[in-house]
Specification:
By secondary structure, the protein is an alpha/beta fold. It is built from eleven helices and ten strands. The strands form two sheets. It has a five-stranded mixed β-sheet, sandwiched between helices. Helix 5 runs parallel beside helix 7 and helix 5 runs antiparallel to helix 8. The mean pLDDT is 93. The protein binds 5'-O-[(R)-(carboxyoxy)(hydroxy)phosphoryl]adenosine and zinc ion.
């Protein structure tokens, strides 16, 4: 069968996100305005298991996505033929979900002869700050990104679309993973970050002097496993199931303070490194679910101010996984003429500073 040529066209971009446990769809117009979007969180499906189950995630994406795409397109008032391109998260992430989302996107693109854009999920987080109107004076390159989610914890120099340098990352757990594991120790359910933050409001953050792994050491790497072990030891002082709420609140607050201080310390080193690489860098962007945490935001704001940087964290709905960021990254790549072939295979592992980021593959 002859494949008809792709219509090169700038226009609205449909974005699809399915790399972990959020099924999301969004349509942005050519200037980056959100025409319609939807996010379905699979939290209730995974909560009984205390974490994301890949097979359940893939099935849930498959069950939700086709109808979600139709509804978002209807709300945007568009037909597929009105689109300029279709973008999907094609990695890194859980392969089942990545296959579901990218196959739906490729199917629409092929059927309507539209360009397909394979979006690196981390690049989508990295470029979110550039969505028109999000950061008051915009987010011109270069800037520093601290990505702190359930699956990722890294500092990146964002120097252009497709141009990223990883300055440091976690050597064990991601920050959100540490929140989730400690929340589990405290009996708070999953995902634990928001519940732990709520509990911490009534606790004494000075009660436990938990370790701050790697703090005041050179470099921008992170480590949380020693901190988590110290929390487990504090919890184990009580008989199973007999941890009083006020003691749990003190542990939560002390743990949260330790994480906030470690993140600020490591981000501080990253800002210093960034200054040497790019003297005009002035902006620290924080993204990922942990960026929703008030104590973390406050510590990062203070550290940034002390180093002459402005700290911005996009609104929480853009910090956590969503499809607006995927459509926007698609838009940024499309504008440079970077599109991808329909046989682009999803990549469960796909570091941002790997080959092939600095262009499309079509
Ligand atoms: O970015 P995200 O929605 O999903 C990915 O992991 O990709 O981040 C979810 C993570 C979870 O580990 C969750 O516990 C954590 O972000 N989180 C928080 C807060 N809200 C979400 N951690 C601390 N404080 C919060 N308020
Ligand atoms: Zn994410």
């Amino acid at each position: 069968m002859a494949i008809l040529p792709i219509r090169p066209q700038v226009g609205p971009v449909l974005g699809i996100e399915s790399s972990c446990d959020e099924t999301a769809t969004a349509v942005l117009d050519a200037s980056g305005r959100v025409l319609a979007e939807a996010v379905h969180s699979q939290e209730t499906e995974h909560a009984p298991f205390g974490g994301v189950v890949p097979e359940i995630a893939a099935r849930a994406h498959l069950a939700v996505l086709p109808r979600q795409v139709a509804q978002v397109m209807a709300r945007a008032g568009l037909g597929f033929a009105d689109l300029g391109a279709v973008a999907a998260s094609t990695g890194p992430g859980l392969i089942g979900g990545l296959i579901v989302g990218s196959q739906v996107a490729k199917g629409i693109a092929l059927a309507h002869r539209l360009p397909f854009v394979a979006v690196n999920h981390l690049e989508a987080h990295a470029l979110t700050a550039r969505l028109p109107g999000l950061v008051p004076d915009g987010a011109p390159f270069p800037y520093l990104l601290l990505l702190v989610s359930g699956g990722h914890c890294q500092c990146l120099a964002v120097e252009g679309v497709g141009q990223y340098t990883r300055l440091g990352g976690t050597i064990d757990d991601a920050a959100g993973e540490a929140f989730d594991k400690v929340a589990k120790l405290l009996g708070l359910g999953w995902p634990g970050g928001p519940a732990l933050e709520r509990l911490a409001t009534s606790g004494d953050a000075a009660r436990h002097d938990f370790p701050r792994p790697l703090m005041r050491r050179a470099g921008c790497d992170f480590s949380f496993s020693g901190l988590k072990t110290a929390v487990a030891r504090a919890v184990a002082k009580y008989p199973p199931g007999a941890l009083p709420t006020d003691a749990a609140a003190d542990i939560a607050a002390s743990f949260q303070r330790a994480v906030a201080e470690v993140l600020a310390d490591r981000a501080g080193n990253a800002m210093a490194t960034m200054r040497v690489r790019d003297p005009q860098a002035r902006l620290l962007v924080v993204a990922g679910g942990v960026a929703a945490n008030g104590a973390v935001r406050a510590a990062l704001t203070r550290e940034a101010a002390a180093r002459g940087f402005a700290m911005v964290a996009p609104p929480v709905r853009f910090c956590t996984d969503n499809a607006v960021m995927v459509a926007w990254a698609g838009q940024e790549r499309l504008r440079l003429g970077w599109t991808d072939a329909p046989d682009f295979a999803p990549r469960p592992r796909w570091p941002l500073d790997s080959d092939g980021m600095f262009r499309g593959t079509a």
